[in-house]
Amino acid sequence: MADEAAVRAQAEAVRRLKQDKADPDEIAKEVAKLLEMKAQLGGDEGKHKFVLKTPKGTRDYSPKQMAIRERVFNAIITCFKRHGAEVIDTPVFELKETLTGKYGEDSKLIYDLKDQGGELLSLRYDLTVPFARYLAMNKITNIKRYHIAKVYRRDNPAMTRGRYREFYQCVNDRRILDGMFAVCGVPDSKFRTICSSVDKLDKMPWEEVRSEMVGEKGLSPEAADRIGEYVQLHGGLDLIERLLQDPKLSQNKLAKEGLGDMKLLFEYLTLFGITGKISFDLSLARGLDYYTGVIFEAVLLQQENDHMEESVSVGSVAGGGRYDGLVGMFDPKGRKVPCVGVSIGIERIFSILEQRVEASEEKIRTTETQVLVASAQKKLLEERLKLIAELWDAGIKAEVLYKKNPKLLNQLQYCEETGIPLVAIVGEQELKDGVVKLRDVATREEVNVRRESLVEEIRMRTSRS
Amino acid sequence: MADEAAVRAQAEAVRRLKQDKADPDEIAKEVAKLLEMKAQLGGDEGKHKFVLKTPKGTRDYSPKQMAIRERVFNAIITCFKRHGAEVIDTPVFELKETLTGKYGEDSKLIYDLKDQGGELLSLRYDLTVPFARYLAMNKITNIKRYHIAKVYRRDNPAMTRGRYREFYQCVNDRRILDGMFAVCGVPDSKFRTICSSVDKLDKMPWEEVRSEMVGEKGLSPEAADRIGEYVQLHGGLDLIERLLQDPKLSQNKLAKEGLGDMKLLFEYLTLFGITGKISFDLSLARGLDYYTGVIFEAVLLQQENDHMEESVSVGSVAGGGRYDGLVGMFDPKGRKVPCVGVSIGIERIFSILEQRVEASEEKIRTTETQVLVASAQKKLLEERLKLIAELWDAGIKAEVLYKKNPKLLNQLQYCEETGIPLVAIVGEQELKDGVVKLRDVATREEVNVRRESLVEEIRMRTSRS
User: Fold this and answer.
1) Can you give the pLDDT at residue B106?
2) pLDDT average, residue stretch A241-252
3) Rounded CA gap, B192 and B292, in Å?
4) Phi, psi for A219 (deg, rounded to 5)
5) Which ipTM score applies to this complex?
6) What distance in Å separates the CA atoms of residue B348 and residue A325, rounded to the nearest whole number?
7) Quick one: CA dihedral A256, A261, A264, A268, positive or negative?
């Protein structure tokens, strides 16, 4: 604790020194007052001067978009549940120090909260570090969890759009990479930064990456060229076997470990019957610092068409890896808890699905309403409300137009627009006869149903579809 | 725009003036450097010095807690869907100016993000203002939406714990309150601040609220006493009728409008058969500034027991009201979009349910796994993996222990602990016979099932429960 306390005291001293000249708190107060004045002016006279937008890099989801997003979530959750995963949740922000020193060069993209007194906070940058903090805090060493939540990066995301055909997974291992760097002659101190350069190979040609390594990062041209030969390689079990025989790589302890585990992984993939979808790719590096073993990415391939011979990779939609050191960073005794995880990029998958739905002209329902309670004549608001209360109490999903005397045509049109399959119509005659007229919106067929059988009839008709 | 620009220029001038003495940016940079040094020390040498906690006022949810939270969500979502609501989503932060001037005295509780260049941002304080921004931005005047998401307040929440019996709703109308203030002799300029005082009546006795009104807020003692008489009143249609005859209140335009609508509301409540659960309560005020009409709160009543004669209110779990002016604040032409909404306090309801589950000793499952794939002898890892791949491909929720040679007893124990109802056991003999031994964990009965019928058998057995 001594070091930390010392640094804190030093910071405090510098702050006080500067304060003798001008109190930053004073300045902040002055500015706050003026901003408040501005806000009040804006509130009273300048109502229309607001910029009507969401913050840069964020978006709203409309009901239709939410319906599509729910499909994506359901597909993913179903898969997690099929494999027996539990779900957890953590706060949207963490203590700033919880995130410090976990992300390497990416740390500059973290959103910090303003210091308003109290703890220094940052918005979570991923779900992995909060998860590691959760494991260490609760001394959990064994859990299979999923977590669906937003993370925040001060990024300028370039959304690749296109039509996609199928997933494709690439796999590599940080130990193979590090072993490869060692045998290529990269100094230990440059492993991480050269790894960052390799990570750019999906966006840049090798020549540019090479010149970054040599020019900016001071790697010898010979070492760079040796790396250049390795990172072209991709394949399956055959490649693993070949590299295990590689005279240099096979002498490196880390690389040998990594290749051994990669071989085991491919044996499991064979048992699961999915080797065809996975490629061992020596150019895969992943950006984040905390990976310690296997790393992987799921990539979408563009839809083939007449103008293209080959399918082209258009972007990564999921990625992850093994991070055996992260939980230990939070543990008082540094005890390691081996972890492996994958993160799925919902936004990108969603945007692909959204395009597909638009192209297909499929009509997306945004509600699950089974029946609209309608009236054929005026002055039946009370009767509509009484009937809908009966239906709601029986668990039927029902709506009613909020107008006092809506036209029947408008009520039917509302069903067409929103996809409600049934209309329960009350009129003077129906009330007298103790029936409700049930109309099928699609076929336009109408039939009188005894009021006491209405719930059953609606249930029967809507369970079929 | 002139006023805004002027104020901005003024703020800039003040900032520059102060900067001549000492540059706050310089100070900030110095401090940042030291903090970075500290972080690096922490990252390299002091790994164990992290404070292992979530930020103040936040919490994690464990898998068990998530299972309970899901129940609460499902109950609420089912209700929203029954009434034909659509769902939307908005970002966790908004432009700071979107939130400015919407919350009155509560604004000080907003979390701001640090100015890291670019837009000034704040975490959302509720879902209402982002919703109003969404409506104005998309020119929507007609939508019935729900939105489930976290909101952020720099608060010191005092969580009331206790055993609760049932919900109870109180209703009032801002126009009735404002009319009441007017006829009691409260000056127009004091309406909102006196309303804030009335809002404290659920936490403070009338005497304290009165002395705040008179002492701190400068209201005349006579006006306070007149308010004191009104705010005692609560009832139903009878009280509404009485107040419509009240010689003073009935002369006030706002109060009359409010009472008229309240009467209509109670007529609807009668049609829905729920008047017994709703009390018209003149002391209900609600904290937020933006309400313009009916306001309401759902309150939990404490479980009756031998020591208590009456049930006591222990806290509000939901609240809302009409806010007809908010969307207009975002519209360039100030067009009004009438809105009414309710917000449900999930955290409080969750904590009540959590206590109830703990008290009942009910066993909560955190996964939906139908079957564990187990082995009776050693060296059957491959066979277990082959079988589970078959089950997964058929959509069966299945798990397997990650050990190479787990003991059968440990595999059965895992099922007991996690509530998995079935075990599919492979052994040498079963493999030879083309069967799998299916064990019912509860009854301990075992039966050999042909491998090709296994999926069907598991489906049948788990659909029953």
Assistant:
1) 80
2) 95
3) 12
4) -80, 150
5) 0.80
6) 37
7) negative
**Closest Cα in chain B to A15:** B27
Question: Between A69, A84, A367, which is nearest B369 by CB?
Answer: A84
The alpha carbon dihedral of B199, B205, B210, B216 has a sign of negative
Question: Whole-angstrom Cα distance, residue B444 to residue B54?
Answer: 43
Complete edge-to-edge strand list for the sheet that includes strand B435-440: B398-400, B371-375, B422-426, B435-440, B446-450
Residue A432 CB partners (closer than 8 Å, separation 6+):
none
Of A59, A85, A398, the CB nearest to B367: A85
pLDDT-wise least confident of A24-38, A275-289, B419-433: A24-38
Instruction: For chain B, count helices (H), then strands (E).
Output: 16, 15
DSSP string, B82-110: HTT-EE-B--SEEEHHHHTTSSGGGGGGP
Q: Where are the beta strands (DSSP E) in B197-310?
A: 234-235, 278-281, 294-302
Residue B50's pLDDT band (cuts 50, 70, 90): low
Chain A residues within 8 A of B42 when measuring between CB atoms: 4, 97, 100-101
pLDDT of residue A300: 83
Residue B105: is its pLDDT beyond 90?
no
pLDDT band with cut points at 50, 70 and 90 for residue A20: very low
Helix H or strand E segment including A154: none
Other residues' Cβ atoms within 10 Å of the Cβ of residue A434: 10
Helix (H, G, I), strand (E, B) or coil at A320: strand
Nearest CB to A63; choose among B15, B86, B136: B86
Q: What is the mean pLDDT of residues A366-384?
A: 96
DSSP A111: P
CA distance B413 to A454: 49
A52 contacts B330? CB cut-off 8 A:
yes
Shortest distance between the Cα of B264 and any Cα of chain A, in A, equals 12
User: B183, B252 in Cβ contact below 8 A?
Assistant: yes
Q: Rounded to a whole number, what is the distance in Å from the CA of B419 to chain A's nearest CA?
A: 11
Q: What are phi and psi of B36, to 5 degrees?
A: -65, -45
Cα separation, A33 vs A155, in Å, equals 32
* Partners of residue A24 in chain B, C-beta under 8 Å: 22, 24, 27
Which residues, including other chains, have CB under 8 Å from residue A296's CB and lie 6 or more apart?
A: A169, A170, A171, A172, A284, A319, A320, A321, A342
Grouping H, G, I as helix, E, B as strand and the rest as coil, residue A276 is helix
Which residues are CB-contacts of B302 (< 8 A; sequence separation ≥ 6)? B162, B163, B164, B165, B308, B311, B312, B313, B314
Residue found by looking up tokens 């976290």 in the block: B150
pLDDT in tens, A426-453: 999 999 999 999 999 999 999 999 999 9
User: Which residue from B248, B252, B322 is spatially nearest to B290, judged by alpha carbons?
Assistant: B322
Per residue in A298-345, pLDDT (tens digit) is 988 766 544 444 444 557 889 999 999 999 999 888 889 999 999 998
